[in-house]
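Troubleshooting log. The previous structure file for this entry was overwritten by mistake, so regenerating from the original sequence record. Sequence copied from the archived sheet and checked twice against the printout by T.R.
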Amino acid sequence: MPPPSPGLVSSANVYPSTYKRGTTSIFEGTLPGAKVESKESRGVIFELRAYVDEDIFIDAYANVLTGKRSFALITKNERISGYDNYKFWHYHPPDNPNSHIPCDEPSIDSIILSFKDVLEKRFGKA
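Regenerated output below.
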């Protein structure tokens, strides 16, 4: 049986190479103009950065061994929105990125689409 889709399940249930391939594909498909860079460490840590322009990028981090995942929309080295599962799944809204709003585990697709919405509304970019 093939491994589960990385956009729909916890990273703890996904093979590292599948998670990397699936996440990169989601980023490239949702943000076609972005420059996507990724790296894998020790076969369990995956990091991705998608540059929207020189000042705006999205960082994604996953440790498939521990299940830790984080996603942040960053401009001028400050998070303006994000999602992560440090202690519990929560959202950092763009109007108050330091707050922690509990949420269910989101799919990678929904995270990137929410960031894309912020990019369009705040910066006129997508």
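The helical segments are 16-30, 108-123. Archived copy saved in two places this time.
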